[in-house]
Amino acid sequence: MEEGRAVFANLTKFIIWTLPTNVGQGLVILVAVLLGETLPILPVQVLWINMTTALLLGLMLAFEPAEPDIMSRPPRDPKTPILTGELVGRIFSVGAILLAGAFGLFEWELRQGRGVDEARAAAVAVFIVVQTFYLFNCRSLSQSVLRVGIFSNPWALVGSAGMLLLQIGFTYLPFMNALFHSAPLSLESWGWAFLAGLAAFPLVGLEKWLRYGHRRSAGADPSPEGPRPASASH
């Protein structure tokens, strides 16, 4: 039973982690079309983001150990959807951060006189960096990663390091530039991309604390899994 709960929790974490990327990509393209602007990301770059992050970041959530209180939680109501209103709100808030970061940095790069390939590489970097920071937020749906433990899932660190190395290749290797229409970035551009990731990390952590902290303080179940069956007492 404990293993089943852990698998279900990790599956939910993966869904909550991956959906903001799809929302953010869709919003970036939609806003560009509505404004008549150049697309900040190309289909081949979307493919790069989705394939590499799913393998090196999202898959690492499968190795997430069961949270200590998982067996003390009441049974989950089978009629409750996986995506509760609370989690949907988190998905769209992170998607909005991706929209603001990627589209904003793309436009800023162009205004600095840089080429469109460099601007797109900066937008892709925002997606990669934000997803990496957000991965650690998703290691628990209701608790801070500091409470869960940075090193309790070493595979998340390994995957993040591998993703960073791949993204450096995407940005600086000539054959990758030709294949994915990317270009080398300045340290300043990387700094803005990491700023977007640093913004997402505490904002999601604050949302968790505001939404679930009072439940934990009161000794109630803090998990965002919706209502339990009325007949369940444990």
Question: What proportion of the residues form beta strands (DSSP E)?
Answer: under 5%
* Large-scale geometry: elongated
The low-confidence runs, each spanning 5 or more residues with pLDDT under 50, are 226-234
CATH superfamily: Calcium-transporting ATPase, transmembrane domain
Radius of gyration: 19 Å
Fraction of residues in H or I helices? 55-70%
Number of domains: 1
What would you note in describing this structure?
With 234 residues, the protein is an all-alpha fold. The chain has one domain (2-67, 107-212): Calcium-transporting ATPase, transmembrane domain, CATH 1.20.1110.10. Helices cover 68% and strands 0% of the residues. The chain has eight helices and no strands. Helix 1 (2-35) packs antiparallel against helix 4 and helix 4 runs antiparallel to helix 6 (154-172). The chain starts with a helix and ends in a 17-residue tail after the last helix.
Quick recap:
This protein is mostly helical and 234 residues long. The protein has helices spanning 2-35, 43-56, 85-111, 116-137, 145-148, 154-172, 174-180, 187-217.
